[in-house]
């Protein structure tokens, strides 16, 4: 396996895959990161070309683990040096990546991925062999996806301790806007609102700390994920603004916030009771497998142990 | 000390005051709560009249620890049976309580209070002797406030392990709207928004869990505190809606959320670095003491050990 980018996610992936008995080598742009990885006993290089030549020779699975802005130049390298390798990514938006991969003519061997995990820290040293344990790892089941490549990435995610959530790229992005990008903007708005009120920071307790926790994330990271997903995020923002504006009007007119509070509590109760049934009985590669997996994912299903692959031995 | 209402806050107060060596007795409306308190060795009664007669005889400090809707009937009882006792409360809004106390002719001996603590649970059994440890406990320094009564409540709060934040009632309410009531409504709006997006609950992780945690609070409690503070909450809601709408427009027009994200991160950084200097050098009862304490509270100051009281011995 070949990991391009040895930051928090790429570095953790290298550790987790190695711990699972896989052979892994990687590239990192900064010499510091490469040295740190090597010092920890990992096979890291500062040359993207040499790394990709190795990948091409061994037909290794290539994992794009660079930030969104660095993706196009990485894809240039892949196209030039290792265009036939199976390819996946770990980026937090999926439609924009898919588009970039398509523009680079690399769609045939590509399966988009997104492990839903992370910390507020970054770089090789922030990595953690257990980062993926129990986390949902989204794998795209878009129309173009090749069953053999899909199965290969599924095995990687399961080896790292994740559960696999199959999803269409656009549905992933809509969900990510609602459960990750919108919460970041709400946290920022809460922090700014309170900062303008004398005494507020003095009295802040649990609900403020919870509500602003993710506002500590580096602004560049928040911008990168929000701005690369502007369409779905816009829709989520519209929905939230509409709910808050309606509550504001009802508070002014009737002195009540009943509607928002009751529907919010009901939604939270549904979320807390949300079940994740195991996806079983679908073979990767059978007729309609992509649609079936997408439907099972929408229903809350996750893959906890490898699904069979049609036409595979063993 | 006489505690009216032995739920989460009143029950914890009874435990904490007793542990600090104070004599405490209390009233609770439900027989179950009274029995549970008695079984734990506390002096609890189901008769509000008898409890207040004891308070009047011993000139005990009366703590109103009933929910907002039960307050007027409690104040009727206090006026009838124990009108000269020092009086405080632990309610999460201060202007509405002040108004109700004034209407009952009980202002002279009243100092509003609000310990900024709690859990998602309620009732005597949810109580905890350590609930107040380290928590900010707001004490109102409104113009009418009597220094002797104020000092008595200050000692109670310090005995329970809290730090005292002096504040005007209206400034408390504005701050509470921003750091407590607004976060509840944002959490409700986030839960409702995500509930409408297929796949969202499936992918929800840390930022969604943090952002919706307080949406688990019982709707009646959320409504009670929000609706009793509708003026300041309306202003906070307006500010948050305005910030989100501006971010929405900039995302649509320029593909950027830079302004909100950067100002949010800056505000969060200021909050995390927020210092709580100890308030020293002010004597309760000296000329202008209320204004001085209010200014010190706005500046982030807290009282960690008892301030001297003018005209007191010892």
TrEMBL record, chains A, B:
Q: Name one GO biological process term.
A: tyrosine biosynthetic process
Q: Name one Pfam family in it.
A: PDH_N
Native source species? Mycolicibacterium hodleri
Task: Give the Enzyme Commission number.
Answer: 1.3.1.12
Q: Does the keyword Nucleus apply?
A: no
Q: Report the residue ranges that make up the Prephenate/arogenate dehydrogenase domain in this protein.
A: 1-282
Q: What class of enzyme is it?
A: oxidoreductase
Gene3D superfamilies from the UniProt entry: 6-phosphogluconate dehydrogenase C-terminal like domain, NAD(P)-binding Rossmann-like Domain
Q: Which GO terms describe its molecular function?
A: NAD+ binding; prephenate dehydrogenase (NAD+) activity; prephenate dehydrogenase (NADP+) activity
Q: Tell me the protein's name.
A: Prephenate dehydrogenase
Q: Which UniProt keywords apply?
A: Oxidoreductase
Q: Kindly give the InterPro entries that the UniProt entry links to this protein.
A: 6-PGluconate_DH-like_C_sf, NAD(P)-bd_dom_sf, PDH_C, PDH_N, Preph/Arog_dehydrog, Prephen_DH
- UniProt record similarity statement: Belongs to the prephenate/arogenate dehydrogenase family.
Mind giving the lineage of the organism this protein is from?
A: Bacteria, Bacillati, Actinomycetota, Actinomycetes, Mycobacteriales
């Amino acid at each position: 396996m070949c990991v391009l980018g040895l930051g928090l996610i790429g570095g953790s992936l290298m550790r987790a895959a190695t711990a699972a008995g896989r052979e892994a080598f990687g590239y990192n742009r900064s010499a510091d990161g490469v040295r740190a990885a090597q010092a920890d006993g990992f096979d890291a290089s500062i040359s993207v070309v040499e790394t990709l030549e190795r990948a091409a020779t061994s037909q290794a699975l290539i994992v794009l683990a660079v930030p969104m802005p660095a993706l196009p130049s990485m894809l240039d390298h892949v196209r030039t040096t290792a265009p036939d390798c199976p390819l996946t990514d770990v980026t937090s938006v999926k439609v924009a990546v898919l588009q970039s991969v398509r523009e680079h003519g690399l769609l045939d061997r590509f399966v988009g991925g997104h492990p839903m995990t992370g910390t507020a820290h970054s770089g090789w040293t922030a990595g953690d062999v257990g980062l993926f344990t129990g986390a949902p790892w989204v794998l795209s089941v878009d129309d173009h996806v090749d069953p053999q490549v899909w199965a290969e990435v599924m095995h990687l995610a399961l080896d790292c301790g994740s559960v696999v959530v199959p999803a269409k790229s656009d549905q992933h992005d809509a969900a990510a806007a609602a459960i990750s990008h919108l919460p970041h903007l709400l946290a920022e708005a809460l922090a700014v609102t309170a900062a303008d009120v004398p005494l507020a920071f003095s009295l802040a307790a649990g609900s403020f700390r919870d509500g602003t926790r993710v506002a500590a994330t580096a602004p560049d990271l928040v911008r990168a994920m929000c701005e690369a997903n502007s369409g779905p995020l816009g829709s989520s923002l519209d929905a939230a603004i509409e709910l808050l504006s309606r509550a504001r009007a009802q508070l002014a007119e009737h002195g009540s916030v009943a509607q928002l509070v009751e529907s919010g509590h009901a939604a939270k109760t549904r979320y807390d009771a949300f079940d994740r049934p195991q996806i079983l009985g679908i073979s990767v590669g059978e007729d309609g497998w992509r649609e079936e997996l997408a439907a099972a994912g929408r229903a809350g299903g996750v893959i906890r142990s490898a699904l069979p692959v049609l036409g595979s031995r063993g």
